[in-house]
Design goal:
Elements: H1 2-28, E1 29-30, E2 33-34, E3 40-42, E4 45-47, E5 52-53, E6 59-60, E7 67-77, E8 85-92, E9 100-103, E10 113-117, E11 122-125, E12 133-141, E13 144-153, E14 157-168
Antiparallel strand pairs: 1-2, 3-4, 5-6, 7-8, 7-14, 8-9, 9-10, 10-11, 11-12, 12-13, 13-14
């Protein structure tokens, strides 16, 4: 009787361990790949959360932007007097490192702007309604980001519009 009880206990223990291992493998693995950054496995393929791509959701959309840039400003309306070339750095923003960026010294202002990117490398900045800020749209092509932007002063009144070209160092 003791042998039978031990056998049943051992069989139950093995079944529980096997089920736990099988469940872990199913939830963490997607075929031979482990889904990262919150990705989930559907039909043996990782489905990535917003801000990530790749067969295992390993690449943040922001990765291609992060570095230091030489920047130039041109085609401003009305004309902008002052220095029209400077350096800015782009880092992953703390709000979401997958699809938000922090651009330091935007428009040579010593002010950082927060931008969002999409899976195609399009970048945009939207100011809070009725406040000072910048509205911008553009994209990265190779080592160059081109942004068309408009500044806004107090009350959300447009200031000037320019094209900014940012080239990776």
């Amino acid at each position: 009787m003791k042998s039978a009880t031990r056998f049943v206990t051992l069989a139950f223990f093995c079944a529980v361990v096997f089920a736990a291992v099988l469940h872990t493998a199913c939830t963490n693995k997607c075929g031979t790949t482990t889904c990262q950054n919150g990705g989930t496995c559907t039909n043996n393929k990782c489905v990535c959360t917003t801000g990530y791509s790749g067969n295992s959701c390993q690449t943040a959309w922001t990765d291609q932007f992060v570095t230091t840039y030489n920047c130039t400003r041109a085609d401003c309306s009305p004309a902008v007097v002052g220095v029209n070339s400077w350096q800015s750095a782009i880092t992953k923003a703390s709000s979401n490192s997958g699809y938000t960026l922090a651009i330091s010294n935007f428009d040579n202002s010593n002010i950082a702007q927060t931008a969002t990117v999409d899976s195609a490398g399009n970048i945009s900045i939207t100011p809070a309604a009725g406040t000072y800020g910048v509205s911008a749209k553009g994209a990265i092509v190779g080592n160059t980001i081109t942004l068309n932007f408009t500044t806004y002063v107090a009350g959300g009144v447009p200031g000037y519009s320019c094209k900014m070209v940012m080239v990776k160092l």
